[in-house]
Design goal:
The protein is mainly beta. The chain is built from no helices and ten strands. It has one domain. Pfam families: DUF6864.
Length: 135
């Protein structure tokens, strides 16, 4: 089988997929082999109709824990612009996601991770996420 390369504008897609959490457990995605960079997605729904938000937490130098609070819209919720969240081996890593949920069920996550070596990605929304950078 031939390899496939996907690009979008100035970035290359390094991983894209859909995953459904198992029995409301967190989802862990490891990139770069040997635990080079790990994203842990935790889902927490509060009672009532609270606003959706993400609580990021850097764990060590290679792991980020993202707690998605109140992502319970069956039509989906996600970020508006790609999020710069890591630098790995000189590559700038970005993330996009959409999370779907029906009633009190497991979460369905569509995700895409991108990378770029360019320093001129000034159209990408990074403000407010500086604490997400993992060197």
């Amino acid at each position: 089988m031939q390899s496939i390369a996907i690009e979008s504008g100035p970035v290359r897609v390094i991983s894209s997929g859909t995953v459904i959490s198992f029995d409301k457990n967190p989802i862990e995605i490891t990139m770069g082999g040997s635990g080079r960079c790990k994203v842990i997605m935790i889902f927490h729904d509060e009672e009532g109709e609270g606003k959706s938000f993400v609580r990021p937490r850097v764990i060590g130098s290679r792991t980020i824990e993202l707690t998605f609070v109140n992502f319970k819209d069956p039509l989906g919720s996600g970020n508006v612009k790609p999020i710069h969240f890591a630098t790995i081996g000189g590559l700038t890593i970005f993330m996009n996601y959409r999370i779907y949920s029906y009633l009190d069920s497991d979460k369905t996550v569509h995700y895409t991770f991108y990378c770029s070596q360019e320093d001129s990605l000034d159209k990408v929304h990074t403000e407010g996420f500086n604490e997400w950078i993992i060197e």
